[in-house]
Every structure is written in structure tokens, then in C-alpha cells.
């Protein structure tokens, strides 16, 4: 990866996908492989919504409390602003590696694709929360690399049903998750250099091998 192109010396990686696609199954092993490659760098594993005390409190509300879709979008970005301020940006400035289980692609997929908020509204929030101006240099904090675990909504639902009690999002129907998945896939086609599609229907071992290879490219 050409780190010269980034504004911070650290590396920012995100895992994305519909609920049950398999992100959490791979994130720790992937972090371990990156640690082998960059032993001198600190690796921060975090998640959204969450990652800070305030973010975790907001997460509890977001995953349990019914609310207006715009309130939901605003709270997701409020939690993200705190996450960037407290965890992500300080780490990237120090040259650390940040791996986040979800980031802004989730907001576009769930709040735009799933809930129907307009992309224009989320673009405004993204610019506000991720936009920075330093010495006349205007840029947006974005992941260097995003792994999108792509899976049919039916299989993802089966996987979830086997293992957990559903939260507010996981109770939503197949139509909602198809819209979320389609928005993820649309973004993958708009940002092909950043978003790497992972076929999450493959076996856990096969995906682990693929992720090891991906870690070696970073
Ligand atoms: N490739 C796979 N094949 C079969 N089962 C899998 C695979 N990957 C993950 N699973 C299983 O599917 C379930 C959901 O996986 P996991 O919790 O990693 O999904 P997730 O994408 O992190 O979900 P969420 O975003 O909702 O937390 C787990 O029980 C996990 O063991
Ligand atoms: C960041 C973010 C998350 N969501 C949704 C997606 C999931 O259903 C939950 C988080 O649960 P997980 O088990 O940690 O994956 O929150 C969202 O709708 N919008 C967002 O920006």
C-alpha cells in the first residue's frame, strides 16, 4: 500500500457486511497476521457503533431502542465523531494500525439502503464528521482498506438464528437486508480500490487463508 498517499502515518482498516456475514469470526486472526507483519506497530481493534464509553452507551440505545431513522443516522455519526476524536485519529497520527468492525459504509448501507435516508443527507454528515482542514489541506478521513463480507441474506439469517438473540436490526426482514446488501455492493463498485469483496459463503478456513493473503498485501 502506498502510505505516502495517506494524511496520517497509520493504517485504517474496516470490516463490513450484513449481520451474520462473518466479520467478527475473522477480525482477530487478521489482526494477528498484521502484527506478525508489523511487529513494531500497535494494533487497535475497535467497533462501531461503539469504541468509546459514550459510543458504547449510544450502541446500547441504537441496537435496542426504536427511533426515527434520521435520529438513528445522527446518533451513528455522533458515536463516530467521538470514536474518531478519542481512538482512531490519535492512533493513526501515532502510526498505529486501527481495525474497526464497521465504519461509515455501514451507515450508507443500513441508514440509506435499509432505512431510506437520502445519500445526500449522509454525504453531509460524512463530510462534517470525517472532514478535516489542516494548513489549507482539506481531506476526509477514510479507511485505507475495507473488507466487505458479502453473503446472501438467507444464509446470513440462518447463521444468526443458530447463535444469538436478535437485536433491533437483526429482527428486520429479508427485504431490509437485501437493500442493505445492495447498497454495500453498489459502494464496492464505486470504490473498487478501497473496498475488497470477500465471498463470505466460502468455508471459514478458506476465508481465513484469503484474509492472511490480504494482510500480506497491506
Ligand atoms: N464462512 C462461514 N461458514 C459458516 N459459518 C460461519 C462462517 N463465518 C462465520 N460463521 C458463523 O456465522 C455466525 C455469524 O458470524 P459472525 O458473528 O462472525 O458474523 P458478523 O458478520 O460479525 O455478524 P454481526 O455483524 O451481526 O456481529 C457465527 O456463528 C459464525 O461461527
Ligand atoms: C456502524 C453502524 C452500524 N449499524 C448497525 C449494523 C448492525 O446491525 C449493528 C451493529 O451490530 P454488530 O453486531 O456490531 O455488527 O448496527 C448501522 O445501522 N449503521 C452504522 O453506521
TrEMBL record:
<feature type="domain" description="Thymidylate kinase-like">
    <location>
        <begin position="15"/>
        <end position="209"/>
    </location>
</feature>
<dbReference type="InterPro" id="IPR018094">
    <property type="entry name" value="Thymidylate_kinase"/>
</dbReference>
<dbReference type="GO" id="GO:0006227">
    <property type="term" value="P:dUDP biosynthetic process"/>
</dbReference>
<dbReference type="InterPro" id="IPR027417">
    <property type="entry name" value="P-loop_NTPase"/>
</dbReference>
<dbReference type="GO" id="GO:0004798">
    <property type="term" value="F:dTMP kinase activity"/>
</dbReference>
<dbReference type="GO" id="GO:0006233">
    <property type="term" value="P:dTDP biosynthetic process"/>
</dbReference>
<dbReference type="GO" id="GO:0005829">
    <property type="term" value="C:cytosol"/>
</dbReference>
<dbReference type="InterPro" id="IPR018095">
    <property type="entry name" value="Thymidylate_kin_CS"/>
</dbReference>
<comment type="similarity">
    <text>Belongs to the thymidylate kinase family.</text>
</comment>
<feature type="binding site">
    <location>
        <begin position="17"/>
        <end position="24"/>
    </location>
    <ligand>
        <name>ATP</name>
    </ligand>
</feature>
<comment type="function">
    <text>Phosphorylation of dTMP to form dTDP in both de novo and salvage pathways of dTTP synthesis.</text>
</comment>
<dbReference type="InterPro" id="IPR039430">
    <property type="entry name" value="Thymidylate_kin-like_dom"/>
</dbReference>
<dbReference type="GO" id="GO:0005524">
    <property type="term" value="F:ATP binding"/>
</dbReference>
<keyword id="KW-0545">Nucleotide biosynthesis</keyword>
<keyword id="KW-0067">ATP-binding</keyword>
<keyword id="KW-0547">Nucleotide-binding</keyword>
<keyword id="KW-0418">Kinase</keyword>
<dbReference type="GO" id="GO:0006235">
    <property type="term" value="P:dTTP biosynthetic process"/>
</dbReference>
<dbReference type="Pfam" id="PF02223">
    <property type="entry name" value="Thymidylate_kin"/>
</dbReference>
<keyword id="KW-0808">Transferase</keyword>
<protein>
    <recommendedName>
        <fullName>Thymidylate kinase</fullName>
        <ecNumber>2.7.4.9</ecNumber>
    </recommendedName>
</protein>
